[in-house]
Amino acid sequence: MKLFIDSAEIKEIEEAAATGLIDGVTTNPSLIAKSGRPFAEAIKEICALVDGPVSAEVAATDFDGMVAEGRALGGIAENVTVKLPLTWEGLRACKTLSEDGFLTNVTLCFSATQALMAAKAGATFVSPFIGRHDDVGFEGMQLIRDIKTIYDHYEELETEILVASVRHPLHVRDAAMTGAHVATLPPAIFKALLNHPLTDKGLAAFLADWQKTGQTVPRA
Ligand code: E4P
Question: Which residues contact 187 (CB under 8 A, 6 or more apart)?
Answer without folding.
Answer: 5, 7, 9, 12, 13, 15, 16
